[in-house]
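<goal> How does this chain fold?
<body> The protein record starts here
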Amino acid sequence: MITINRQIKPFLKWAGGKSQLIGQISTFLPPALKTGKIKKYFEPFLGGGAIYFWLADHYDFEYAYLYELNPSVAICYKVIQTNVKKLVKELNSLEKEYLYGSDKAREKLFYDKREEFNGFLRRRSANSHLRRAALLIFLNKTCFNGLYRVNSKGEFNVPFGRYNNPAICNEDNLLAVHDLLQNAEVSCGDFEQCLEHADNNSFVYFDPPYRPISATASFTSYSKDSFGDNEQKRLCRVFGELDHRGVSVMLSNSDPKNVNPTDEFFDDLYNGYHIERLNATRLINCNAERRGFITEILVMNY
């Protein structure tokens, strides 16, 4: 069943987010989704959640299973799901402090809050979830290019972004996200967890950390653990297991042919499945002249 579209947006900026590709991806959704056969939705690499928000705003699922390996991001979703009003209050306070400060004061505030956020990561405190979620959103809206990147110690290390008027607290959107999360199970865990519940009435969408298309391009540092070719191959094996069960599966990734037309990594890995190439815009690049059109792959088993 299709519901009313409220144009809910991701509450986090996200490198590789799918907001710009929803129009293209929506044309390749599984037919079983449109006929109402699909009752469960799984997204094992939740990130900014653009695809989930769009689908949940257009279709009714009986169950949604959302997984995010980054603990801070998973916690943020859970806080929005269960305690959104207090989160809005925290964000409003941070927004006022930021917007009323001088340029120098804003920069100091950013680095103070970054250190506070990293302090929570080091202590792994279970009692700091509300504050940790507020700081994550604040840093995401005020850091350079909205990146989430950590060092080898697992500490957030993106520098100050110098934005004049960032929308740190979008209350209406957060409340809408809260509504869409009420029938979802949000977990911090590995993508293989989807195998526990997925059946032939399920749709799984994988949006893993992309395989770098050049030696210097990498957006995989969302956690201190890398997502290399061996992980891409493990993901392919999970894709195959889901296919064997009759699950509808879709996967996004980078297209190595942007740089090397002879690179058949994904074409070989997903040989026998339906592969489409979508047009995307490279948004995360410090050199504006290198922000242009590229292709990304979309793999489906239907």
Q: What stands out?
A: Residues 128 and 146 are 23 Å apart (CA to CA). The domain at 19-69+189-300 is CATH 3.40.50.150 (Rossmann fold).
